[in-house]
Amino acid sequence: MRLGVLTGGGDCPGLNAAIRAIAHRAWMFGDQLYGFREGWAGLLGDGNASLLGQEEIAGILHLGGTILGSSRTNPARSESEMRQVEENLRRRDIDGLVTIGGDDTLSVSARLSARGFAVVGVPKTIDNDVPHTDYCIGFDTATDIVGEALDRLHTTAESHRRVMVVEVMGRDAGWLAMVGGVGGGADLIIIPEERSTLDGVVHHVQHRMESRQFSIVVVAEGAQVEGIESTTSSSVDQFGHALLATRGIGTRLAEAIESRLGVEARVTVLGHVQRGGSPSMFDRVLATRMGATAVDYLHEGRVGVMTAIQGLEIVPVAFADVTGHNRTVDRRFFRLVEQFNTVEESAASHSHHT
Ligand code: F6P
Questions:
Q1: With CB atoms 3.0 to 4.6 Å apart as the test, which of 215, 328, 338, 351 could cross-link to 193 if both were Cys?
Q2: Per the structure, how many domains does the chain have?
Q3: How far apart are CA 202 and CA 197, in angstroms?
């Protein structure tokens, strides 16, 4: 077969591991593999693609980013662009395409698939919000980055008896805030899925400061906190998403906590640090398994699907089931956070008496 691969949307660690696995599995079948550059942009106009060989693929397993480049180009905005995509695939006699991306890339893949082209998707996003897969490539590495940041912020928070507000990525879902926050021992985690108020946050932090004199608050960039005005960016990308980093929810929250409680608060915005660098072992293995399986699916004619991990298995899930909605955080995680805000009865009364 003649296969194609592209990476679309925001990059993350593990994309190169997936590309490498796709290439090697394709070569195992005796296929040729074309790499399309910069996401769907590589399939517009005259196209931007080249045959991938050992030289391009060697030594990329541990590298962050994507050797193919990425963009938020959305050809599904117009019929003429969708035709250009098809034309570029036809011109190169591509029999099947593997698209590595999040909800946006998968939604374009679904459109292309509905027009009769063989596409298999591979989910990646540090937001981890693609439905029907327990993990997306990049998420595990990003949680490690959040966890390490929280470890470091703990020591400085404690020295200065401060409130540290940490803003992490997460547009519609708070997986990164929640899992990174639980692993890094955050006192309070604020996510887009859950209604929160400034009064509630202030009350919580005050309670915590009474017992430990410092506090770590993790907030997802897409979270809404009633009582806090965050600015909305006027510019949106081709999929209609505003750049949330400019909303400044973390900064506004730190300012509000400081003025309401009279304690010192500082903000750290982790930003694109969460998307950079070398992938974790988990992400490398996940990307390798998903990439190889995507090629198997193309050979088996199982198209119009995404590779998903459910438990320990990689399984196909139809595009129709994964596009148009997000996987939100399991509410049971909140109890995991809450339990650490209660101290042992006897310890509390003991310290009270002495
Ligand atoms: O979709 C993944 C994501 O990391 C979001 O959490 C974030 O809002 C967005 O990408 C930022 O992307 P960029 O700065 O690349 O447009």
A1: 328
A2: 2
A3: 9
* Contacts with 254 (C-beta within 8 Å, 6 or more apart), sequence order: 163, 165, 265, 266, 267
The arithmetic mean of pLDDT across residues 138-159, rounded, is 98
Range of the domain at 185: 142-274+330-353
Q: How much is the pLDDT for 353?
A: 47
Helix or strand or coil: residue 161?
Answer: coil
User: For residue 327, what are the β-bridge partners?
Assistant: none
* Residue 298 CA, ligand 1 centroid: distance in Å: 29
pLDDT tier for residue 243 given thresholds of 50, 70 and 90: confident
Q: Are residues 149 and 115 in the same domain?
A: no
* In the chain, beta strands by DSSP E: 2-7, 32-36, 49-51, 96-101, 119-123, 163-168, 188-190, 196-197, 215-220, 225-226, 265-269, 305-310, 313-318
Give the pLDDT confidence of 207-230 residue by residue, as tens digits: 999 988 999 999 999 999 999 987
- Measured in Å, residue 10 CA sits from the centre of ligand 1 at 6
267, 185: one domain:
yes
Task: Please tell me if the CB atom of residue 326 comes closer than 6 angstroms to any atom of ligand 1.
Answer: no
